[in-house]
Amino acid sequence: MDVTITVNGQQHTHDVEPRTLLVHYIREHAGLTGTNIGCDTSSCGACSIHLNGEAAKSCTVLAAQADGMEITTIEGMAATDGTLHPMQQAFMENHGLQCGYCTPGMVMAATSLLDENPSPTEDEVRIGLEGNLCRCTGYHNIVKSVLAAADA
Amino acid sequence: MTVIDNMETSDESIAAGNGLLGQRMLRKEDPALLTGEAVFTNDMKVPGALHLAVLRSPYAHAKISSVNVSGALEMEGVMHAFSGADLADQWAAPMPCAWPVTEDMKNPPHYPLAVDKAAYVGDGVACVLATSEAVARDALEAIDVEYEPLPAVIDLEDSLADAVVIHNELGTNSSYTWPLVIEENEGDCQSAIDNSAYVVKERYVQQRLIPMAMEPRAVVAMPQPFGGDITLFTATQVPHVLKVMSALTLGIPEQQLRVVCPAVGGGFGSKLDVYAEELLCLHLARSLGKPIRWNEERGENAQATIHGRAQIQDIELAADENGKITGLRVRLLADMGAYLQLITPGIPLLGAFLYGGVYEIPKAFDFSCTGVFTTMTPTDAYRGAGRPEATYAIEHAMDALAREMDIDPLELRRRNFIPRDAFPYEAYTGLVYDSGDHDKAAKVAEDLVDYAGVRARQATQNTPDATKRLGIGISTYFEMCGLAPSRVLASLNYAAGGWESATVRVLPTSKIQVVTGTAPHGQGHETAWSMIAADKFGVDPADVDVLHSDTAIAPLGMDTYGSRSLPVGGVAISMACDQVIDKARKIAAHQMEANEDDLEFAGGVFTVTGSPDKEMPLAAVAFEAFTAHDLPDGLEPNLEMQVTYDPPNFSWPFGTHMCVVEIDTETGETEVLQYVAVDDCGNKVNPLIVDGQVHGGVIQGLAQALYEEAAYDSDGNLQSSSLAEYLVPAASDVPSITLGESITPSPTNPLGVKGVGEAGTIGAAPCVMNAVVDALSGLGVRDIQMPASPVRVWNAIQEARNNTQENQQ
Question: Which of B26, B35, B40 sits opposite A78 (nearest CB)?
Answer without folding.
Answer: B35
